[in-house]
Amino acid sequence: RVGARERVPELLDAALLPGALFVLLLVPGVRVWPLAPLLALGLTAGLLARRGDLGRWRSWLRLGRVDRTTLAIVLGVQVVSVVALLVWTRLFDGVLPDVYADAARDAGAVPAAVGGLLFLVVNGLVEDSLFFGVLLGAAQRALAPAAALTLSAAVFGLAHLHGIPNGPVGVLMAGSWAVMLAALRLRTGGMLATYAAHIVADSTIVVMLLPAALGR
Questions:
Q1: Are 19 and 138 in contact (CB under 8 A)?
Q2: Residue 55 has pLDDT above 80, yes or no
Q3: Is residue 119 a contact partner of residue 201, using CB atoms and an 8 Å limit?
Q4: CA pair distance 63, 188, nearest whole angstrom
Q5: pTM listed for this prediction
Q6: pLDDT at residue 189 above 70?
Q7: How many CA atoms lie within 13 A of 96 on its CB side?
Q8: How distant is the alpha carbon of residue 3 from its chain centre?
Q9: Mean pLDDT, the chain, as a whole number?
């Protein structure tokens, strides 16, 4: 019973964060990615700060340890992500969602390229902090490792229903990829390895899809 009571705050954290995210994804003007997850992180952090529980995030957002085996795994995950995105664009006609493609065309090539570079840096930081930092860290304290990994991967996949990749295929792809990132997080105890794998996937998205959107 004592152990169960000690785990209640972590369970609340694990439920609060994805709950805030999916509510924000329903709000027009706010659901643009990565604004929605960034706001979800901010709202959750604010509530936890008022409770005096924000200190738990320090361990969830640390860099972690990286050895040679981890580097090899990161490289493998990067290769898998690039191949999967190439297959998605070829077999399922994957393109940037209209909201991003329209914004890129309205802005012009140079501002769109700058925006793409910012996306590379920010998106991985926000997504990894949310799904594989706070959410996985909270779930890991309250659940078995396999259950915590499954929860974070499932939420990550569902959050990409209207993202990149999108649709039911995108949810399956993103969820499967998230299993690999969550496993990296559990192996290294930090965020550095997941971010290294993530930024390559986002680079692939920008390089493949942004020029196509500008050329429409």
A1: no
A2: no
A3: no
A4: 8
A5: 0.86
A6: yes
A7: 26
A8: 30
A9: 86
**CA–CA separation, 156 and 171 (whole Å):** 8
DSSP codes of every residue in 84-115: HHHHHHHHS-----HHHHHHHHHH-HHHHHHH
Q: Among 118, 189, 147, 161, which Cα is nearest to 21's? A: 161
What is d(CA 52, CA 11) in angstroms, rounded to the nearest whole number?
16
Handedness of CA 77, 78, 81, 84 (dihedral sign): negative
The crossing angle, in degrees rounded to 10, of helices 167-188 and 145-159 is: 140
**Least trusted range by pLDDT, from 30-39, 48-57, 100-109, 120-129:** 48-57
What residue type is assigned to position 121 of the chain? Answer: V
Contact 52, 181 (CB under 8 A): no
Sign of CA dihedral 117, 106, 126, 77: negative
In one letter, which amino acid is 205? Answer: I
Are 9 and 137 in contact by the 8 Å Cβ rule? The answer is: no
**Do 214 and 105 meet the contact criterion of CB atoms below 8 Å apart?**
yes
Note the pLDDT tens digit of each residue in 98-118: 888 888 888 888 898 898 888
User: Pseudo-torsion of CA 40, 44, 47, 49, nearest 10°?
Assistant: -130
